[in-house]
Specification:
By secondary structure, the chain is of the alpha/beta class. It contains 14 helices and 18 strands.
Length: 420
């Protein structure tokens, strides 16, 4: 790997809250080698002079669906595999362009897609894949239409590139499904523990999966050295998931104080997803989002920001999640604004850096600008802590992105990878 220096740049480390003005940062062999003054013994391959720019950790989005190229998730699930795969290309490139160097896929991304990025065939962020999310029959991942003749395997979605979930019922079947997803490269397991907005046939207030099924998923994930993240909206669904050993709750819009305090006691994280509901309500009808799903958005959207306020007050650690679908992927960074309105710019940035890194078990490795940390970095033209708008849009104010010590965006342009 090359060695390069970022000269005269301002450095902000969200993890410690420290700020340095006009220093030199040396990146070597994929890690941050020095901050401040570059040792005389270092002979960098290239130097980038960046006065007035701010260096931040690369952003981490903990809730994406890179295969969701259409807003209607049911339509993605029946899309031809090759077409579904090709439609992910602009999605992951866009994420990297906006400064997201790691994303946790909450259902859909497979081993082949991750390998394409890891080996330089495809330009995109590092993906932590959940494989196919697990849903009960009639649950949040079951997009079959209501009919008298239900086809097996959720319309064949197990083998579909564009499907975000697979339908599986029963404790033994859950165990097998978790083992299969881990065999296929999942870095964590996603389960649907309540109804949701995007699924047409279930109420948000439903609880899904029995406690025995949830515990089976957790036991198998822990046996493989990983954890379970659970889609859950209501206090009842969240508490059931926590009691069964789930480590991270997705969405959680209807959480109450008693449940939030339970999360603190059990060291359980939350990944709220606020901005996506705003955009689904505005643009969903024109993009084919199911009408029956649109009716459910207001109930979750109206309380989502109050839930974030509650989490902050009680002390639940909340990571950044965008959960954009289809044409709405371009609004990924709007989640920064949705959070900043409640917790301020600094905490919004921390949710996508130091807090997100802790949630994925990489505190001190990613999500920080410190010596020895992985060189996943973004360069912002200005001070985003003072002006959060610099992080919005499609990366117009992010001239440089560094992923694993390699400059993948320079002078505002993505640099094409060289396949291994």
């Amino acid at each position: 790997m090359s060695t390069f220096v970022l000269e005269r740049i301002n450095v902000f480390d969200p993890a410690s809250g420290t700020r340095l003005e006009g220093v030199d940062v040396c990146v070597s062999d994929g890690v941050i080698a020095s901050i401040g003054t570059v040792p005389p013994s270092v002979s960098p391959d290239v130097r980038y002079t960046l006065p007035g720019h701010t260096l931040l950790p690369g952003f981490i989005d903990l809730h994406v669906h890179v295969v969701a190229s259409k807003t209607n998730l049911g339509a993605n699930a029946v899309m031809p595999n090759f077409l579904a795969a090709l439609r992910t290309v602009p999605i992951v490139r866009g994420m990297l362009n906006r400064g997201f160097t790691t994303v946790r896929d909450a259902g859909g991304a497979d081993f082949g897609m991750c390998e394409a990025i890891n080996t330089g065939v495809l330009l995109g962020p590092r993906i932590l894949s959940s494989g196919k999310a697990l849903s009960q029959t009639g649950g949040h991942g079951d997009f079959r239409p209501r009919s008298d003749q239900l086809m097996s395997d959720a319309c064949g979605c197990l083998g579909r590139q564009g499907a975000i979930a697979r339908v599986v019922d029963g404790e033994d079947a859950i165990r097998l499904a978790v083992r299969e997803e881990i065999l296929k490269g999942a870095t964590q397991i996603k389960v649907m523990a309540s109804g949701g907005v995007a699924s047409p046939n279930d109420s948000i207030t439903n609880t899904q999966y029995s406690e025995a099924e949830l515990r089976a998923a957790v036991e198998e994930a822990e046996a493989a050295g990983t954890y379970v993240m659970a889609h859950a909206y209501t206090p009842r669904a969240i508490r059931r998931a926590i009691e069964c050993g789930v480590r991270c709750i997705e969405h959680g819009n209807l959480v109450d104080e008693a449940t939030a305090r339970m999360m603190v006691e059990r060291n359980v994280y939350m990944v709220p997803t606020l901005a996506t509901l705003d955009h689904l309500l505005s643009h969903g009808p024109a993009l084919g989002f199911p009408p029956e799903s649109l009716e459910k958005i207001d109930a979750a959207r109206s309380v989502g920001r109050e839930a974030l306020r509650l989490l902050a007050r009680v002390g639940v650690k909340a990571g950044f999640g965008s959960d954009m679908l289809g044409e709405l992927h371009v609004h990924q960074s709007d989640e920064f604004v949705a959070r900043a309105q409640i917790v301020g710019n600094l905490e919004a940035i921390r949710s996508a850096t130091s807090v997100a890194a802790e949630i994925i078990g990489e505190a001190g490795v990613r999500g920080t600008v410190s010596v020895g940390a992985k060189a996943d970095l973004v360069v912002v033209a200005g001070d985003p802590v003072a002006d959060l708008s610099l992080l919005l849009g499609q990366g117009e104010h992010i001239p440089m992105v560094i992923k694993a010590g390699v400059c993948v965006k320079h002078a505002g342009q993505l640099l094409e990878p060289v396949a291994a």
